Amino acid sequence: MGAPDSFEAVPQPLPDLIETLELAAIAAGREILGVRAAGAKISIKSDSTPVTQADKFAEALILKRLNEQFPGVPVVAEEMAEDGKCPRSAQASYFLVDALDGTGDFIAGRNEFTVNIALIRDFKPVAGVVYAPALGKIWAGAGPQAHAGDVTPEGEIVARRLIRTRPRPRTPVALISLSHREPETQAWIEKMPAHEIERVGSSLKFCLLAEGKADVYPRLVCLKQWDIAAGDAVLRAAGGITLGLDGKPLRYGVENADFGCGRFVSWGDAPDREFAVEDA
After folding, report:
1. Which of 205, 206, 216 is nearest to 174 (CA)?
2. Smallest Cα–Cα separation from 136: which of 269, 30, 280?
3. SS3 helix, strand, coil % of the chain, rounded to 5?
4. Which of 66, 195, 222, 232 is the most buried (most CB within 10 A)?
5. Is 239 in contact with 165 (CB distance < 8 Å)?
6. CB neighbours of 83 closer than 8 A, spacing ≥ 6?
7. pLDDT per residue as tens digits for the range 149-190
8. How far is the C-alpha of 123 from the C-alpha of 249, rounded, in Å?
9. 113-143 pLDDT per residue, tens
């Protein structure tokens, strides 16, 4: 994944770091598919969203691996937050984990769910892995490079290839949620010039931008940092950017927060004066 480098409090060089995150994501994906084959049991969390044992088993596995490989580096993860166990302060470096993004798609029997692990440093997602176990696809990004690859049933990554975003075409492709209908997001898209729309689940939207298969992903609702960090890391490594509605790169951080992130627009090709974020 490019020339060796290191991050404060994370001693592994970039290639080794990405490999560690990939192996953890693939192992978590195996847990998720095992639960799906056996039949998932659904419960409802305090925020009225569903959770299954797949979410919990996969997160526990990832946390164990991160704690073994990076002792002392804080981790913020979705189910940890539900249990009130996340750190209340993490500024230099920390991991963000969404062990099963797209739980609704998983429950519905669709394949568009992902495992997401990201490293945040200096308020930016600097490394991330997105794995779609039911699709056998994985994306990773760190520094100035992003890759996509296929994952065999045995968990081996094959056909790994560099990916980059594309220049925005005359008719850009806008991505919106497969499962959620959001009037604010729809209103933003309707202001665009001629465009196409595709509905995609989970953090796969970031990956399509990173691969140059789509152009813009607006989300005018407040999500959680773990929902987007890994995909955003892949996108930024591939040449794209995620901007807040103030037109500045979206920032991440934990300081007496609820781990929320503001409304944002992710771009494969950064906007110009013709159609800027502030126009939303």
Report:
1. 216
2. 30
3. 30, 30, 40
4. 232
5. yes
6. none
7. 999 999 999 999 999 999 999 999 999 987 777 889 989 998
8. 10
9. 999 999 999 899 999 999 999 999 999 999 8
Give the C-alpha separation, 215 to 195, whole Å: 10
Q: What angle do CA 158, 159, 165 make, to 5 degrees?
A: 125
For residue 54, the SS3 value is helix
How far, in Å, are 33, 75, 227 from residue 85 at the CA level? 26, 10, 18
In the chain, what are the domain boundaries? 14-163, 173-279
Pairing of strands 114-121, 260-261: unpaired
Angle between helices 53-69 and 14-38 (to 10 degrees): 160
Structure tokens at 231: 């995909």
Q: Which residue has the tokens 């994952």?
A: 151
Domain 173-279 is found in CATH 3.40.190.80: yes
Which pTM value belongs to this model? 0.92
